[in-house]
Design a protein that fits this description.
By secondary structure, the chain is an alpha/beta fold. The protein has helices at residues 3-22, 53-64, 86-98, 109-125, 140-155, 159-163, 179-187, 208-220, 243-253, 290-293, 308-315, 346-381, 407-423, 451-465, and strands spanning 133-137, 169-174, 195-198, 224-231, 256-260, 285-288, 301-305, 385-387, 395-400, 430-434, 437-443. Strands 1-7-6-5-4-2-3 form a 7-stranded mixed sheet, with helices on both faces. The chain has a 4-stranded antiparallel sheet with strand order 8-9-11-10. Strand 10 (430-434) and strand 11 form a beta hairpin.
Length: 468
């Protein structure tokens, strides 16, 4: 493609993206295609000859777009958000255009040094203590794996990296934690049987008596407690594990404490919502995702560690072809995680923070939390509905209830309600199960969500349950 043709299509694509954002509410939030509906329209073999960009883009609009669920739609209340913003998109465009491979300082000094500065900004913005050092990972799943590997090496004086496992290491987490903990435990070689699920309390948070009892029992059996993976804002219910109490137990038994605040961590940018971070100074590692609630394109995960030397010693390998004269003076972020190759993720994060400012980000957080609280108030005032978990930050877990109905009948009714709501195309919610009770989740966090969109959810709910 000649540069002038590239320029023409690039301008057209930017116009299309701007139109998409402007008219996004015309799309159904959740894609309506059936399984295989996109694949059946695509040829089984790649083209032998190059095709015109006009034809490719036409197929994008006619084949791909119907199979897209619109995460940037203001009616997106499912899962947790995966936000972007115009500033982030512009930064991502420049990242793609530059094509930087930021594995070491030498390969692009700006990529490394900007990441160092932006992570310091983010640390201070988000209430993370100043003795933590940050690095950008792709996702919280990867950051958690880095934490588990670091904990493994610290607990064995880095001998697993050298000789493999010589003793059984144990990892502790709550039954409401993210599935990435189990996946990380398997990948890191601990073995699924050595992941100990700790009972939770009435608020779905980890119980301290159960945690300490499990640790004591393992020690008596000759097993080695290695890591506690705590959660601030569980996926199902936004439960908050008590980090201050967990931290004391971890210090008592010399156990690595990893804290996953993938979605909730952004809320700490607003100081009045920072209470859930109490005790974070005792953590060894901490992660949250700007690509969820902080206006930044996927993927961009902020991983902070108390001791960066443990992280680097866990991952560092120094082949001759990567050695440079600057190595002793700079950070080479290839040693701070799993991947050798690294995208220039700091650029879009820099664009977002500078474009919105800390106060702009705080304003969005406050709006979303207030909207969730307002929705929860409507639920509480209506006898036909109940809230099934504490309303932390911007997530509400609720269900329709009807006197005399069994749990099975209530589950069927709420499944029907969820299906009908999502079929409207106007909003998208998801579900979970808490203490055996099926419920709907309303997660407020999309950049353009306003009160009218939350009101629309409530109107749909009431309309669908009016005659039940």
């Amino acid at each position: 493609m000649e540069i002038n043709e590239f320029r023409k299509h690039a301008h057209a694509f930017v116009d299309w993206i701007a139109d998409y954002y402007e008219n996004i509410e015309q799309y159904p939030v959740k894609s309506t295609v059936e399984p295989g509906g996109v694949k059946s329209q695509l040829p089984p073999l790649a083209p032998e000859q190059g095709e015109k960009m006009e034809d490719i883009f036409n197929d994008f609009q006619n084949i791909i777009m119907p199979g897209i669920s619109h995460w940037q739609h203001p009616g997106w209340f499912a899962y947790f958000p995966a936000n972007n913003s115009p500033a982030s998109v512009l930064g991502e465009m420049l990242t793609a255009g530059l094509g930087v491979q930021g594995m070491i300082w030498d390969t692009s000094p700006a990529a490394t040094e900007l990441e160092e500065v932006v992570m310091n900004w983010l640390r201070d913005m988000a209430g993370v203590p100043p003795h933590f050092t940050g690095v950008i990972q792709d996702t919280a799943s990867t950051a958690t794996l880095c934490a588990l590997l670091s904990a493994r090496e610290k607990a064995t004086n880095f001998q697993v990296n050298q000789k493999g496992f010589q003793k059984t290491l144990r990892v502790y987490t709550s039954g409401h934690t993210h599935s990435s903990i189990e996946k990380g435990v398997k990948i890191a070689g601990f073995g699924r049987e050595n992941l100990v699920y700790i009972d939770t309390d009435e608020n779905f948070a980890m119980r301290m008596d159960a945690l300490e009892q499990a640790i004591e029992q393992d020690i008596k059996m000759g097993l080695t407690p290695c890591c506690v993976a705590a959660t601030l804002g569980t996926t199902s219910s936004m439960a908050m594990d008590p980090i201050d109490e967990i931290g004391k137990i971890c210090q008592k038994y010399n156990i690595w404490l990893h804290v996953d605040a993938a979605f909730a961590g952004t809320a700490a940018i607003a100081p009045e919502y920072r209470n859930f971070l109490k005790g974070i100074e005792m953590a060894d590692s901490y992660v949250f995702n700007p690509h969820k609630w902080m206006l930044t394109n996927f993927d961009c995960s902020a991983y902070f560690v108390k001791d960066a030397e443990i992280l680097k010693r866990t991952f560092s390998i120094m082949p001759e072809y990567l050695k440079t004269s600057a190595d002793e003076k700079v950070n080479n972020y290839r040693d701070w995680g799993i991947q050798l190759g690294r995208r220039f993720r700091a650029l879009k994060l820099w664009f977002v923070i500078r474009s919105y400012g800390i106060e702009g980000i705080r304003a969005m957080i406050r709006l979303h939390i207030n909207l969730a609280q307002e929705f929860a108030g409507w639920i509480e005032k209506d006898e036909e509905f109940e809230i099934l978990a504490p309303v932390n930050l911007s997530l509400v877990c609720f269900r329709f209830v009807k006197p005399g109905q069994s749990e099975e009948e209530l589950t069927a009714l709420n499944k029907k309600l969820l299906k009908n709501i999502n079929a409207s195309g106007k909003v998208y919610l998801t579900h979970t199960v808490l203490n055996g009770r099926y419920c709907l989740r309303l997660s407020v966090g999309q950049r353009n969500t306003r009160v009218k969109h939350v009101e629309q959810v409530w109107d749909l709910i009431k309309e669908n349950t009016r005659d039940w």
